[in-house]
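During the no-cost extension, the postdoctoral fellow (Dr. R.K.) reprocessed legacy sequence entries with the updated structure-token encoder. One reprocessed record is reproduced below for audit purposes.
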Amino acid sequence: MSAALGSGYEVSSSRDVAASSAAAAKTQISYLQVMLFALAAAALLVGAFLIANTFSIVVTQRTRELAVLRAAGATGGQVMRSVLGEALLVGLAASAVGAGLGVACAAGLRDLGPCLRDDAARRGLVVAPPGPWSSRSRSASASRSCRRSARPAAPPRWRRWRRCGARRPT
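Re-encoded structure tokens follow.
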């Protein structure tokens, strides 16, 4: 074939073209994965600071209420558990809302795919969690998100009490 076309043209088999196209697509996807991972890490960092700052403000605003609980006979551990319980409830509600919004956004992207004339969209995107999504994995996911929301809530609580204990009574 190359003899018939001459030296000005490059002749390749369909397998060679498919292999080079697949390698180029794989490289592009790996760059996209790195970028998405970096964005997810940045979002996680911003989320942790937001949670810590929010609970710091909440505990600061409720310092008098928490002091009244202490004066009424609640131990420091009971007050701490109430603040952490509140953080766990907020984390549980936020994880439920986030999971619902994630599924809704995935469905919206699936419906938007044919408009973009993407080959993967024509084959159909699957809006489902990867692997078996049992009640055990759902509860583990909710538990993990609650722990991640309660962990930043603890340091503001301890800082406020140390500062309150350092003040002299008036």
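The two ends are 98 Å apart (CA to CA). Helices lie at 2-5, 14-61, 63-71, 76-112, 119-123, 135-150, 154-166. The remaining legacy entries will be reprocessed before the final report is submitted.
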